[in-house]
Amino acid sequence: MSRVRFLLAFAAALAALWVAPLVLPIGDYTHNIVGLTFMFMAAALAWNWLGGYVGQISFGHAAMFGVGGFVAARIMLSSGLPFSVAWLLGGLAAGLFGLLWGHPTLRLRGPYFSIATIGVGEATRLVATYWSDFTGGSSGLSLPLAGNPTKYQLYWYGLYLLGGAVLISYGLARSRIGLGLSAIKEDVEAAGDLGVNPTLYQDIVLFLSGTMVGVCGGFYASYQAFIDPQDMFSFDRSIGLILMAVIGGIGTVLGPVWGAIVFVIIQEFLLANYSELYLGLYGALLILIILFEPLGLTGLVRRLHRLAIPVRRAT
């Protein structure tokens, strides 16, 4: 798809989603869940910048999600700054935190990097749990409703987050940095020989990814109006981001968007009916996708499209 066609289609879809709640009879529950889904889409896209474009599979993005959420929450509790500014500051703090641990660990590749990120995520969760002066510990933090957007308003803020994440995803994929990331993903040493600076490129992507995930953490804090370290920094959170990208199509521009939709629908169904089994069922789904369709829904659509072309020619 050409750049002009993509931007036109993107603008039309964004406009349709913006006006949908104003003209369609959508219930409050559905309205709120859709707004939260927009946030998950943005977070999944942000994870994909590192896990999909660079090939560095991170199991520690919950650390940035939690840092962004708690920093934003503390800013909202202690200052009169607008909540959107608090989200952005929380996101920047999360991006810088990502660089703090990511700059040295990004020299690792494959499973070694993934194992390191598991350690980072769990260590961050433990520190946050015991740092009760900042996070509230196991008691968590409650955000006052005054000065905070309602869940109804968060629909549109979630849409803005998604719009920004989609534009960054498309820009990265079509830019010189995107070409460098593809080279790093294929062979980091060969990319360096061709003039690509792997350290700089990976640091840039990690900072962007961590910042966006941190902003999503601030959004989530406002959505829930109560956060605690066990939820914000949970390993389940990181697994969820990976599943969204894998279900939709890891390394693709819009795959994580479709994956997030499927993830939220399945999650709502499983939590309501099989609350003790949903993680195991997610694991089984992940294995099936990896075995039979590594590019997820995006790969499935592409395969069906290739099969449909001979049928069209024959008719």
From TrEMBL:
The chain crosses the membrane at residues 31-50, 57-77, 83-102, 154-173, 204-227, 239-266, 278-301. It comes from Paractinoplanes durhamensis. The lineage of its organism: Bacteria, Bacillati, Actinomycetota, Actinomycetes, Micromonosporales. Coiled coil: none annotated. Its main location: membrane. It holds the Pfam family BPD_transp_2. Keywords: Cell membrane, Membrane, Transmembrane, Transmembrane helix. It is a multi-pass membrane protein. InterPro entries: ABC_transp_permease, LivM-like. This is Branched-chain amino acid ABC transporter permease. It is found in: Cell membrane.
